[in-house]
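Hello,

Our lab assistant flagged a job as stuck in the queue for most of the afternoon. It eventually completed. Since we weren't sure the result was trustworthy after the delay, we are filing this so someone can double-check. Below is the sequence as submitted and the structure that was eventually returned. Let us know if re-running is recommended.
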Amino acid sequence: MTRRLTILAVTVAIVVSFGLYRTELRVREMEKELAELNIALLEDQRTIDVLDAEWSYLNRPERLQHLAERYLMLVPPATERLGGPEQLAALPKRAPALAEQPGGDDARAPAWPAAGTVLPLPASKPAAPAGGVVLATHGGGND
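-- returned structure --
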């Protein structure tokens, strides 16, 4: 009996040692893979930083203005294109904002109450039915 117990203990020790060795090798492989991924991550972060700097450099307003003038031929419209100063003066004046409008001169403007006017409170909410909340009702008929 002692002999069988000794053989069993040695066998268990060998199996556990082999499992521990395989686990240690796998952990080393995973640590190596993690180090490689960290290096790749740092390289990608540096690349992103360079691309951000390049994007900021290329999107400078003065550079974009120069490119627009050079390639798009965009220029502000001249007043002559609008018809000259006399035609500009003939254009209708812009309507004043609602806050600037007098009491009710403009038919489009809503009738706002005067400052300091007390407005009535809305009616109170209806009370819930005694049996609880009614989710839906339908108009008659037999189901």
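-- support follow-up --
The delay was a queue issue, not a problem with the job. The result is valid. The chain has three helices and no strands. The radius of gyration is 41 Å.
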